[in-house]
């Protein structure tokens, strides 16, 4: 297996597979491939293990179905493009070395990947962090590629060192990092600060990858330039505003 990242602002992950080699991704991730690649779609991959396993994967932000791309009869190539400006990050996953990633971060992996819902603290922390805020647990034993939006900034946190981050900027962190949702102090700060109500507290030891372009921020930035007319404008504006509030911590 050979991989390369093509481009800069909107990169493409190109993976060349020898005959018999395969990778898996969520359904709908494919950009292009050569004729030697054969597709198999199933709920059993990605740690599925039946409907219960697939449900756990879905709760974490993944899709019900996963797709396997396998080279047959010779070398084949499959490619995945970023959805917004960003980067692809390769990580090695082992049973004792797993990761927490943002809900839309997983792109693809070799066989042996296990995806499930993963709250580092508790289910309550995820709920209070905002509707729809979820972290995916990337486990198993595999080589995986994660897509993060915008520029990627990394921090190596020392034991006990805490970094407070707007939840949307949390891209990925090692399993040794403690995670919890905290409330911003001060009524004025919460109401007039325009920075939201919650922050994610990441406490070391371990490595943290932050992304500079959360998707809700991008949606908010381009919303004034979306042309709508009449009644659609009011409905559209309300939907966008509601989506932003609901998605601040996605």
CATH level 3 topology: Double-stranded beta-helix
Q: Reading side by side through the largest sheet, how are the strands ordered?
A: 5-6-3-10-13-8
Summarize the main sheet. Answer: 6 strands, antiparallel
Q: What string, H for helix and E for strand, traces the elements in order?
A: EEEEEHEEEEEEHEEEEEEHEEHH
- Percent helix among the residues? 10-25%
Q: What structural category characterises the helix and strand content? A: alpha+beta
Can you name the CATH architecture? 4-Layer Sandwich
Q: Which class in CATH terms?
A: Alpha Beta
> What is the overall shape?
globular
Number of domains as seen in the coordinates: 1
Mean pLDDT: 80
Measured on Cα atoms, how large is the radius of gyration? 19 Å
Low-confidence stretches: 120-132, 188-195, 231-250
Please identify which CATH superfamily we are dealing with. Answer: Mitochondrial biogenesis AIM24
What's the β-strand tally?
Answer: 19
Name the descriptors:
250 residues, six-stranded antiparallel β-sheet, 42% strand, alpha+beta, Double-stranded beta-helix, 5 helices
Offer a quick outline of the entry.
This protein is an alpha+beta fold.
């Amino acid at each position: 297996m050979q991989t390369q990242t093509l481009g800069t602002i909107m990169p493409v992950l190109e993976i060349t597979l020898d005959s018999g080699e395969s990778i898996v991704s969520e359904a709908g991730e494919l950009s292009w491939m050569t004729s030697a690649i054969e597709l198999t779609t199933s709920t059993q991959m990605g740690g599925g293990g039946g409907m219960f396993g697939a449900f756990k994967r879905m709760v974490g932000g993944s899709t019900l179905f996963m797709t396997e791309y396998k080279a047959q009869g010779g070398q084949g190539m499959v490619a995945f493009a970023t959805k917004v400006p960003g980067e692809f990050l390769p990580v090695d996953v082992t049973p004792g070395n797993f990761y927490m990633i943002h809900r839309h971060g997983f792109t693809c992996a070799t066989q042996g990947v296990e995806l499930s819902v993963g709250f580092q603290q508790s289910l309550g922390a995820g709920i209070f962090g905002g509707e729809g805020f979820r972290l995916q647990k990337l486990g198993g034993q595999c080589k995986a590629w994660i897509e993060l939006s915008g520029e990627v900034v990394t921090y190596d946190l020392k034991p006990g060192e805490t970094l407070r981050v707007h939840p949307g900027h949390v891209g990925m962190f090692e399993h040794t990092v403690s995670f919890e949702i905290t409330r911003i102090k001060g009524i004025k700060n919460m109401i007039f600060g325009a920075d939201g109500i919650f922050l994610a507290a990441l406490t070391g030891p371990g490595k943290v990858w932050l992304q500079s372009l959360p998707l809700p921020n991008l949606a908010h930035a381009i919303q004034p330039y979306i042309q709508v007319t009449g009644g659609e404008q009011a409905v559209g504006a309300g939907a966008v505003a509601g989506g932003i509030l609901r998605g601040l911590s996605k």
